[in-house]
Amino acid sequence: MSATSGSVFVNGLDSVKHRDQVRSQLGLCPQHNLFFPDLTIVEQIIFFTLLKGGSISEARQSSRVLLERLGLSEKANSKSSELSGGMKRRLQLALSLAGGASVLVLDEPTTGLDVETRREMWDLILEADALGDRVAALRTGYRLSFTTNDAPREAAITGVVTSFVREATVKEKTIYSLSYNLPSSGSSQFPELFIALEEKKSELGIKTIGVGVSTLEEVFLKYVSLINFR
């Protein structure tokens, strides 16, 4: 996909003119796990290190360091399908750090995790020096939250939400709550969505409905609180 306009520079390098150099410096932890199902954990880390131009000896050394740093050593020879949700996110973080990335992009690194595991994940990110001296936080949308009388009827609620805002995605689910990410582009449909949800509250087992955005103050306070845990 070609850019329609503008330029992106990473450490002073044009991402188009110096694509290979930029890729070697970037690490991405996507929102959804992306693994090779037939490779073990250590093989995947080695593979990603080699992709960034490292030698086989550097890749093996990098894998040992990352496995130990992220608490994955005991699972080194396991396949990703054998890991728990928390362990899978640790592996995804390890892959983003493989090859010594100097610029790390974290896209919802704790998505799908319970509160305790999420806290552990952020501690690991800090301990792994994954947060550098400059941090950028991107917010493009809204958060739609529900509390429910019983276990959330995710499929039914999602059906209603996406019928009005097609790009909506599930952000988090707990025993009695469910939340979604809503893109700003769908804001014109919010009034109709809220009316439909209010009308179907009983049918969907919804107790309360809330919508909000993450302010810059919240982002700042969150970051400061994380640093204070170091």
From TrEMBL:
One of its GO terms (cellular component) is membrane. Gene3D superfamilies: P-loop containing nucleotide triphosphate hydrolases. Keywords: ATP-binding, Nucleotide-binding, Repeat, Transport. SUPFAM superfamilies: P-loop containing nucleoside triphosphate hydrolases. InterPro entries: ABC_transporter-like_ATP-bd, ABCA, P-loop_NTPase. Pfam families: ABC_tran. It comes from the Eukaryota. GO terms for molecular function: ABC-type transporter activity; ATP binding; ATP hydrolysis activity; lipid transporter activity. Residues 2-111 form the ABC transporter domain. PANTHER family: ATP-BINDING CASSETTE SUB-FAMILY A MEMBER 2 (PTHR19229:SF36), ATP-BINDING CASSETTE TRANSPORTER SUBFAMILY A ABCA (PTHR19229). This is Putative ATP-binding cassette sub-family A member 3.
